[in-house]
């Protein structure tokens, strides 16, 4: 097939180069043969892992076909695998889940019992992730020409890693990827040049890393054609960082000297080589950043930016208006859909509006099944295995929960994401990300569910009980108008002698008690990543929640079945609650967090 023959094309024209054409042909081949590819993937996973303890336990007897697999292997959640994961973490190297050695654990932002889930992975998964990454720019180049004429300003970070008792590394999937040779020694690709040097991305100190990445972005501001981070919250954090540090950045640019806070030897060395005095640029940074109005700051500083490359689907949709504000409405491209367990797929129409984003799951990444999603159903009928639908058989318009079987040894594992089928590319379905199950509050990668919030409120109530008070009602809200965003909890209090309201110190203790009760991803966001601001309690007047109920009933809620929503986002409700606030209180200090695992 010649360049331009791909069925994946856009109004902008044919593939940008032969390498892109090859990638696009690969997408076509995989999506045209989705079902066959899936069958092959399953057979490959089952045959190579036939002798694992897990598959033997279910008496698959070497079977590699779908029928045997579906009738014998149960659908599971993380908690079902906990004993196996624990053994691997403790150093058992026998083939428990995978015939290939587990190379490390990837720490998911999903938690179990308050701690990050540990996802086993094997070396070759890096190739699979790399393959998916390699498809992103060829697709983007179909829609945005000329990306080889400049650079991408991407704010990318590594996070702390730990070792399990058995000596395996445990770290986030992106940390694993950025530290791999796949990333560090990637071949030069004119369509994928970053302003951030590897030394900055790989610097473990988040301030030094961000500072240097921002400095490089400013130094090359005219070359920048796209600005991005993994998630929208990360890009907004970078904007906030610029707001707080532009004067020092401008000083460094003016003098050609580096902020002494950047002490990491290899980063310092690299940045010192790059910096040259540039008073004109320093004047520009000073004049733009000292203005009160930061609307459109991204395009003012980086005037050639064609789009923002950030995920704004799912929980990140709450940041779309703020990104619009700072970027003057630049397109927001959501390019891929992935997790620690497995990278799933990509958006074949990345310049579409955020609300229209659909991800095409690549059938070569893992074996995918879909549990028809019925709210309030566990998906299990008594004694009969769940009816899971294959990738090629899902129906447009229906919602499903994603279930995966991976090369690394997860079998029929529920990811927890609910997806809706929007259409097909060839025979591969495309999915709108609907939501992650059981997530009430999220600011960054934190995910707080109803039970965790309830537990946190109980602990706050315990503090109040010392003063003859308790929490009568509560609800919550993810406030993203601040950067970083923060959790707001509305409390209606029950006081024994309806005398005085509790004092500031008691309620700020409640804020901290709540933060201490939230999961480790939340606390890491507060302590280490600075991606979540202090939790706020807003005390509302007595009777507010009754008004809240009246309002809900006036809009059609049933009186008998009415339950206080534990999270709110609907503007009229927020207005009602905020108009009844009698006092507001913030966490006075950081909760406890250490990277050590108790595994
Ligand atoms: P983690 O395991 O911490 O890497 O988190 C993976 C989860 O992040 C997925 O299961 C989704 O819930 C969410 N996620 C990843 N990519 C996207 C995306 N493009 N849009 C919406 N949510 C996403």
From TrEMBL:
GO cellular component, one term: cytoplasm
Pfam family name, one: GH3_M
GH3 C-terminal domain boundaries: 452-570
Sequence ranges assigned to domain GH3 middle in this UniProt record: 359-436
Transmembrane segments: none
Keyword vocabulary terms for this entry: Ligase
Taxonomy, superkingdom: Eukaryota
GO function term, MF aspect, one: acid-amino acid ligase activity
InterPro entries (UniProt xref): GH3, GH3_C, GH3_M
Family named by the database record: Belongs to the IAA-amido conjugating enzyme family.
Protein name: Indole-3-acetic acid-amido synthetase
Organism: Actinidia chinensis var. chinensis (Chinese soft-hair kiwi)
């Amino acid at each position: 097939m010649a360049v331009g023959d791909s069925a994946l094309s856009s109004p902008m024209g044919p593939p940008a180069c032969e390498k892109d054409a090859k990638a696009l042909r690969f997408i076509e081949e995989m999506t045209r043969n989705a079902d066959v590819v899936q069958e092959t993937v399953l057979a490959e996973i089952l045959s190579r892992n036939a002798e694992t303890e897990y598959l033997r336990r279910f008496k698959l007897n070497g079977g590699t076909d779908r029928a045997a697999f579906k009738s014998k292997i149960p659908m599971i959640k993380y908690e079902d695998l906990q004993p196996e994961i624990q053994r691997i973490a403790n150093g058992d190297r026998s083939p428990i889940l995978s015939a290939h050695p587990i190379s490390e654990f990837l720490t998911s932002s999903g938690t179990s019992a308050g701690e990050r889930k540990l996802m086993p992975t094997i070396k070759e998964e890096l190739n699979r992730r790399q393959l998916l990454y390699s498809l992103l720019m060829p697709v983007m180049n179909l829609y945005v020409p000329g990306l080889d004429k400049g650079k991408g300003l991407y704010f990318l970070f590594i996070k702390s890693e730990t070792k399990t008792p058995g000596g395996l590394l445990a770290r986030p999937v992106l940390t694993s990827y950025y530290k791999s040779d796949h990333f560090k020694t990637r071949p030069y690709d004119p369509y994928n040049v970053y302003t951030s040097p590897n030394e900055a991305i790989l610097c473990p100190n988040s301030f030094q890393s961000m500072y240097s990445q921002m400095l490089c972005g400013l130094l090359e501001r005219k070359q920048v054609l796209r600005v991005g981070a993994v998630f929208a919250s990360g890009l907004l954090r970078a904007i906030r960082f610029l707001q707080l540090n532009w004067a020092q950045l401008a000083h460094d640019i003016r003098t050609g000297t580096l902020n002494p806070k950047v002490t990491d030897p290899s980063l310092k060395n690299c940045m010192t080589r790059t910096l040259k005095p540039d008073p004109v640029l320093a004047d520009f940074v000073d004049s733009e950043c000292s203005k009160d109005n930061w609307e459109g700051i991204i395009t003012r500083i980086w005037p050639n930016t064609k789009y923002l490359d950030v995920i704004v689907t799912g929980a990140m949709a709450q940041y779309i208006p703020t990104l619009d504000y700072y970027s003057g409405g630049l397109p927001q491209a959501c390019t891929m859909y992935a997790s620690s367990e497995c990278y799933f797929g990509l958006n074949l129409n990345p310049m579409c509006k955020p609300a229209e984003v659909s991800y095409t799951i690549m059938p070569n990444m893992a074996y995918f099944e879909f549990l028809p999603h019925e709210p309030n159903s566990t998906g299990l009928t008594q004694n009969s295995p769940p009816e899971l639908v294959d990738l090629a058989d899902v129906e447009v318009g229906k919602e499903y929960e994603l279930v995966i079987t991976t090369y690394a040894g997860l079998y029929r594992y529920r990811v927890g994401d609910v997806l809706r089928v929007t259409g097909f590319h060839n025979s591969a379905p495309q999915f709108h990300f609907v939501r992650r199950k059981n997530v009430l509050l999220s600011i960054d990668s934190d995910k707080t569910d109803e039970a965790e919030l309830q537990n946190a409120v109980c602990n706050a109530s315990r503090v109040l009980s010392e003063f003859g008070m308790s929490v009568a009602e509560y609800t919550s809200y993810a406030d993203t108008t601040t950067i970083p965003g923060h959790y707001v909890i509305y409390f209606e209090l029950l006081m024994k002698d309806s005398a005085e309201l509790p004092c500031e110190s008691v309620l700020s203790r409640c804020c901290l008690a709540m933060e201490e009760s939230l999961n480790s991803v939340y606390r890491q966001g507060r302590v280490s990543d600075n991606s979540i601001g202090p939790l706020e309690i807003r005390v509302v007047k007595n009777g507010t929640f009754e008004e809240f109920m009246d309002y809900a009933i006036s809009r059609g809620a049933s009186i008998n079945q009415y339950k206080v929503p534990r999270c709110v986002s609907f503007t009229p409700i927020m207005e009602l609650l905020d108009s009844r606030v009698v006092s507001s209180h913030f966490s006075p200090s950081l909760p406890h967090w250490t990277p050590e695992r108790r595994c």
